[in-house]
Amino acid sequence: MASRSATWPSDTQAVSNIETGTRALRLYEAWIDQKIGRHASLRAGLYDLNAEFDALDAAGLFVSSPNGIGTDFGQSGENGPSIFPSTSLAARLAVMPAEGWTLRAAVLDGVPGDPAHPRRTAIELGNGDGALLVGEVEAPLGGGKLLLGHWRYTANFERNDGKGAGDGNEGTYIRAELPLLERSGRTVDAFVRLGTARGRFNMFGRFADGGLTFGGWIPGREQDAFGIALAAAFTSDSHRAATGAAASEVAVEATYRAQLSRWLAIQPNIHYIRRPSADLRIADSLVLGIRAEASFNLSGF
């Protein structure tokens, strides 16, 4: 998942994927899933796009936003795509033609929530919002998986160069995860992602990230995991010409997740951001953080 508001080190990619900038209580997901035969399903309702699209298990350890959904996709739209913290109405069709293969396609409201009133739980259709169309192919890859996706908005967007609005706000991504080692309870998994977004409408035209996650390497702490990841978002030519921005924002994260009990985990993390928001006036940032996660099973009630 991704948070689109810049966090306090003024980075655009956001070091925390639960950062919102707004305190609110809202309905996040509510959908109906209907099976169609043995190999397909249709899901409709209030929907988190990143729960199924542009998502990898190996990248789920990290707390920074670009490892949840690529910055090229997460930056898009008037209020971002339908991901945390604002989701929209959607319809998604998934077909599984063979083992390890899945074809997904979705149509979503082009503007989730209400950008003018971010604390509201708002479902508004029309008003020129248009739709977000997205398709993805998932294929097996050496014990891991490969994702190839494309997205496009039907509405018009203002150009970076100030020369009016136009259509064609779209992008493409390819993403993969692969297990590198699984021996005596120790694992090493790798992931990588490349993506593009139409530069004349978006701040970042290209994006790349990758990382490694390690599990079971600490004796007696088999459920703990640690990893390191790098995410680089490259500004588009038109954005640089209009703003004088730097060529990129680059973020590095190192994190360790310690499972203290069945219901409690803590996760210290450290981030280095080079050229936050691709702004030459902002110094590089070093951010230290810690996250706590508590989970409870209420199935017995």
Describe this structure in words.
The chain has 301 residues and is mainly β. The radius of gyration is 20 Å and the shape is globular. The strands form two sheets. A 13-stranded antiparallel β-sheet has the order 1-2-3-4-5-6-9-10-11-12-13-14-15. Strands 7-8 form a two-stranded antiparallel sheet. The two termini are 30 Å apart. The protein has two helices and 15 strands. It has helices spanning 71-74, 237-243; strands spanning 30-36, 40-47, 88-95, 102-109, 131-141, 144-153, 157-158, 165-166, 170-183, 186-197, 204-215, 225-235, 248-259, 264-274, 285-294. 38% of the residues are buried. It has one domain (30-294): Porin. Strand 10 (186-197) and strand 11 form a beta hairpin. Mean pLDDT is 92; it is low at 1-7.
Set down the secondary structure blueprint.
Elements lengths: L29 E7 L3 E8 L23 H4 L13 E8 L6 E8 L21 E11 L2 E10 L3 E2 L6 E2 L3 E14 L2 E12 L6 E12 L9 E11 L1 H7 L4 E12 L4 E11 L10 E10 L7
Antiparallel strand pairs: 1-2, 2-3, 3-4, 4-5, 5-6, 6-9, 7-8, 9-10, 10-11, 11-12, 12-13, 13-14, 14-15
